Amino acid sequence: MKLLLVEDEDAIRSAMTRGLTRMGHIVESADSLTAARNCLESFSPEALLTDLKLPDGKGLELAGELGIPFIVMSGFAGFDDAVKAMRLGCVDFFTKPVSIRDVHARLEGIAEISVQSALSVLETSTDGLHIISAGAQSIQRQQLVSQSAEWNDSNEAEERWSLWQADLANDKERQVLAELMQCAPSGKITVNYSDTGSSFYLDASVDWVAHAERKIWLEEAAHRSILREHGCIVECGHG
Amino acid sequence: MDNGADVAYWSGLLVWPENLIFAGVIEMSAVTGVGVWLQQALRKHPRQAVVGASPAIKRQLQAAGLPILWYATVEEATIAQTAQTAGVSTSEREMLWG
Description:
CATH architecture of the largest domain in chain A: 3-Layer(aba) Sandwich
Number of strands of chain A: 14
Number of domains of chain B: 1
Radius of gyration of chain A: 19 Å
CATH architecture of chain B: 2-Layer Sandwich
Largest sheet of chain A: 7 strands, antiparallel
Radius of gyration of chain B: 15 Å
Largest interface: A-B, 15 and 13 residues
Number of domains of chain A: 2
Oligomer: heterodimer
């Protein structure tokens, strides 16, 4: 896969370039956003692997410009950064130190998806965020609407859910919301709605051992899920 | 129809813990979703007779490995339960006649 690697730490950049090249990827690397943009004049990458924080800006800026699948690496990022990245279409978010093998596995996944599915990019306009999906025959534009709620105890969680549940598309999404809100005594949840489904972002600490049965249910119900000890993402499709 | 059976009728989207009444037979045709908390509650009632669950709910509860006895109708569940309880068990015999 043709890959653009943007990383300002020399040791990490050269190790990743060597490792990923050995695994069969064609890697061009840059140590800043400016260097990456210069590189793009003669190189068309299929995927971007970028550090979040670069000397002249954030890797997400470049990701937004390129509109290709991208992976973010960061030493300091928190859940909010991961959510921001995911909203821009980030396919994975690695905390440093990053395993080259894990990155390679994710790139293999991207290569498969790129063959099978249409390209989607996020557009910001005066009336909010939109997902632009380009298929073989048509281009679709759909508005992205978000809603959030916070709770500090189980009663408050149920209260918030009761007020919110009518806005969700179906009982499965209502249950996903309820199950996520029961994972932690306090937390914050954000739901992004789109025509094709909803994405749930839980910002809370979760003991998945204590919620093992709930974890199984969520993984079954989701189209895609990333369930971590802090910060969980569950996507549900309408189809 | 009052068939004299010990039946609890549950309904709605049961995704938050609440005090549900358990009975010999639980009628679930008006239940639209079952939360994980209820899976856990049902686990405490082994061999619970259930009727009327939608295929999706039945699939979920079966996948969770719950020891539920599934029946097509309340009548069928009642007959099965009566058959199970007919006669005098060993423990009952011991209790009565030592």
